[in-house]
Amino acid sequence: MQSLQGMNTIEGENLDRWVKQCRPLGTKGRCAEYIPALGESNLLDLGICIITPEGVEIKSGEWDVPFTLQSISKVISFIAACLDRGISFVLERVDVEPTGDAFNSIVRLEMNKPGRPFNPMINAGAITITSLLNGESPEQKLHSVYELLEKMIGRRPTFNERVFQSEWKTANRNRALAYYLKESGFLESEVEDALEVYLKQCSIEVNAKDIARMGLILSQNGFDPIQKKQVFPKEVAKLIKGLMMTCGMYNASGKFAAFVGVPAKSGVSGGIMASVPARYEQETLFQMGCGIGIYGPAIDEFGNSIAGVELLKNLAGEWDFSIF
Ligand code: DON
Prior knowledge:
Helix content is 47%, strand content 11%. The longest helix has 19 residues.
């Protein structure tokens, strides 16, 4: 196995090459224009950061460009809700089954009585989860999300008011989902309050390094090897990684499992947070696992970064990441 010191430069050069190769794919995707403020992103941006448990950071491209968490926030609010209310309370209200449908689909809420959302990675599930967070007001509920994020990335992330306002005004589909959930008894807060928490958590701003750190903590089952502390219990980490594997890339989760093979979560702003677990084979690079953060704002029809997914496929092939 290469030494970590050597890896930093050799693998950094490989990473630059793959970023260069995948970047043009951005022209084949689109920005998430249904959130008007996201329509202004640069389609050709592509950045990546990999962090190992030893604290080695390998970065390339636009890894430091800020972007909003969007659906990656669903991982954080799910963990926060489990910490606030306990796993069984949460799972009574949101299931853990993939849908094979689009992330904002409403169809299964009516088709499967009593309408429990299929999983917390789709919008219906995530809106329900935000209503379960501790506290009465949206501010109090958001506190749980910020507190956990701060523990994971070591600083309080900024909030993009413009992206929030832009989505708040156009969130008709999410409003429809929230009204439906309220009517079927799954939403524990008022519709507008749940939407405010959900859309505000989506508008929290990070960069690829931040989400790589989050992916690293997940890969170490809730233990942060950099701050040397357990941030959340192993049981919660295993549960959310199972959800990321089966539902994290929406209705492309099967393809992602087959061709990349690690738990990951995407967002429509172009972020992908991936978590590579420790492996037992000898001679394996990143044997102790790593976190990967990617930013590439051009998304495909499933809502996943088009160049980001290709980049991960390359890395998984070259560095043998897949857990299978
Ligand atoms: O609710 C929405 O539609 C967005 N705020 C988040 C969706 C999202 O990121 C789906 N991801 N690929």
